[in-house]
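On clarity, I found the account of how folds are encoded harder to follow than it need be. Since the whole study asks how a given chain folds, the encoding of that fold should be made plain. For the editor and my fellow referees, an illustration may be useful. An entry of this sort, consisting of the sequence and the corresponding backbone structure tokens, reads as follows:

:::
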Amino acid sequence: MSCGVITPNRLTGSGTATVSCSATAAGTYTLTFRGTAGLLTHSASSTIQAVDFSITGIASPQVSPVGTNATSSITLTSLNGYSGNVTLTAAVQPPLVGGAGGGGGRTRLTMAAPSGQPVPSFNPVSIFLSSGGTGQSNLTIILSPSVPAGNYLITVMASDGTIVRYIQLTLAATDFILSSQTTSLTMNAGSNSTQTLNLQSLNGFQGNLALSSSFSPTGPLATLTPSTVYLTASGNSSLLTIVVPSNTAPGTYTLTVQAISGTLSHTIYITVTVQSGLTAILSRVLSSNPSASIAASAILALVSLFSIRSAQTIAKTKRRAPHSTTKLRRYSKKPRHATWRPYSITLGPLWTSARDPD
């Protein structure tokens, strides 16, 4: 205990002097006063009882996934006969995350951006402590899905307006990441594709993840192997197989893949474009030989040209001799003039041929 200066420090006749003392710990202290007038001295003693209260909580860090609630018990204890109303409050600091490396190979720590914060609440908020008694309050920390994974320092304060006591708790918020190799695929009817789904643990997340998939609209099919994954700090993966039946209509399909652990879930979307017919054939040609784009364009141009010319020739033949049979005459190797005649077209992987039916 420490005391200040007695005020006033001189008295004439009779009077009153005051002194202020403070203690850093609860206890009973004896204060001795001494008065002197010439050779005459008198002393008097006073007992001061310093009261206080203490606050305690869980010392070890609490681990909880985002999207859940963490709970802790806060205990208040009366010291040296304290009694009174004590109010509880809490403050949350942003988590510390690793930044760019500094000199000497050390990693600089920075405060994470407060995109979402844990929200603490007490029940009850205020506790009346009787002399020598204790009181408890339940601390609930709400971790919404927007809270980033990380270690949060939570300061719990208890105050009666004069005395303030506090403790600090550590909360480890865990999470995971679901990702795929690609967000869009172009597939042909009758084909299949296998993609790897990566699962990454954040801040030490561990637990079983249930994987599911669905297409909208229905058509292609998807399977996950395995469909249940146990995720550790080192991560894990699952194989996604997409099958497009041969009778699937061309169009755009959305594949939804979801990973769930309790109330925590993450979802990704993959766009699958299904093509068929000549477009699918040309896609297979181009995928086997990327340099064939010019040849593929030439194929399309020839198909269009011969289709139009063949239709025109057939129409002219019917108008000239509607009831007679058209005979095709073989020309010599060097015809003197060009004449349009029906041709049959054959498409190969990278070539086109035009053949006279004669």
User: Anything to note?
Assistant: The chain is about 10% helix and 50% strand. Residues 98-111, 300-312, 321-326, 343-358 have pLDDT under 50 and may be disordered.
